[in-house]
Structures are given as structure tokens and as C-alpha cells.
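Retry 2 of 3 after timeout on previous attempt. Resubmitting C-alpha cells to design endpoint.
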């Protein structure tokens, strides 16, 4: 990569973009370039078209997926912890009023990670639609699986002591260790928050893999 590209890395673009925007885009790369130029009194800083230029060199047209793989969606989800109400996510999806927004949150994180444009994840707002898509793609794993970070986790809350095999909720796996799966979920108590479950919990319906 050119020195222009490296200058944006070396001066904190990645951290800045995650902290301020929850992800990377051509628009916020341009904003970063303009802010840095202004703060230093320069006419130009780095390459204002940094993101679209560098994306050419990475499969799936996503630079940061090329560097970080599935961990990127986790980083983006973590940056949203504490969000209440979910308007950022359900309005992005296209809804005019509040809906149950767990799937909108997952889809938003996937879009920010380039996983929707690469075809690794479907944009969905209804959990059963997500389940069926992962199954149709051969990317589905049932409860008891040991998921890797970034895996999409689907839940089925037991009703009257029994499951109906229809997903009620969805989140993103942050990590899995010592028989526990740790998640980041939107619309958990109307917030983006962390939760944890035994890998054999009856509340887990299964998983959608985002790997190639």
C-alpha cells in the first residue's frame, strides 16, 4: 500500500472510526482526512478516497474483513454497547417506528463489516428469515456447537417448558470458552448489552456461520 494509505492507519483511523461511527466507510474516511488536515493546517491529509481505493485489493470488497476476519463484526457490536431504544438500527433498516430490533442490530453490524455486500450474511429483520437463510446456505449449526467470535446466535425462548423451534431473538457471539458462550445482543432489555449462556442452554436454537 502507498504511504498515503499507511498514514491513515498510523494516525488512528481504525480506532477513530470504531469509536465515532461503529465501523468503516468511505464517508467517514473522508471526514477523518478533512479533520486531520484542518487540525494540522494542511491542505490535504492522506488519501480522501482511502476506503474505496484500498477495497479493490480485498476479497468481498471489504478492507477490514481482510485484516481481521470475523472479529470485525464483534468490534463493531462492542462499540454499540449501551445503546438504548435501537432507533439507530431499526431506522437504518427502513422502519418508521420502533420494532423488535435485535435482527436489525445484527444486520447493521453485518453491513458495517461488509458481510452483507460480500454475501456472507443476509440483511434480515425477522429472526426466522435469518435462520432459514443460513440453513439454505449450508451455514447452520445446532445447539451444542462451539461457536467462534462473530458467529450469529439464534434463540428460541421456551414457552410453557417447551420449544417451538421458531427463533425469537438473535445476537452476535463475542467468544466461547469453558462451556459458556458470551454474546452481544441488541434489544436485550431494549439495550445493546452483553449476555452469557451455557452452550447447551435450551434457549439456544442454533448458529449461523459467517465464514466463507
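Retry 2 succeeded. Sequence:
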Amino acid at each position: 500500500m502507498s504511504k498515503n494509505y499507511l498514514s491513515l492507519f498510523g494516525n488512528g483511523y481504525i480506532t477513530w472510526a470504531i469509536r465515532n461511527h461503529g465501523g468503516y466507510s468511505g464517508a467517514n474516511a473522508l471526514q477523518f482526512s478533512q479533520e486531520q488536515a484542518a487540525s494540522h493546517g494542511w491542505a490535504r491529509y492522506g488519501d480522501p478516497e482511502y476506503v474505496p481505493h484500498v477495497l479493490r485489493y480485498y476479497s468481498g470488497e471489504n478492507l477490514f474483513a481482510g485484516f481481521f476476519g470475523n472479529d470485525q463484526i464483534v468490534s463493531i457490536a462492542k462499540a454499540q454497547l449501551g445503546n438504548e431504544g435501537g432507533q439507530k438500527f431499526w431506522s437504518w433498516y427502513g422502519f418508521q417506528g420502533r420494532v423488535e430490533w435485535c435482527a436489525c442490530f445484527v444486520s447493521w453490524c453485518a453491513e458495517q463489516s461488509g458481510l452483507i455486500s460480500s454475501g456472507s450474511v443476509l440483511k434480515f429483520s425477522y429472526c426466522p428469515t435469518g435462520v432459514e437463510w443460513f440453513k439454505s446456505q449450508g451455514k447452520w449449526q445446532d445447539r451444542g456447537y462451539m461457536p467462534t467470535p462473530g458467529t450469529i446466535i439464534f434463540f428460541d425462548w421456551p414457552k410453557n417448558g417447551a420449544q417451538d423451534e421458531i427463533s425469537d431473538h438473535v445476537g452476535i457471539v463475542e467468544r466461547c470458552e469453558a462451556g459458556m458462550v458470551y454474546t452481544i445482543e441488541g434489544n436485550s432489555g431494549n439495550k445493546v448489552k452483553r449476555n452469557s449462556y451455557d452452550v447447551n442452554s435450551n434457549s439456544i436454537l442454533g448458529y449461523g456461520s459467517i465464514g466463507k
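Attempt log closed. The chain has two domains: 3-57, 78-208.
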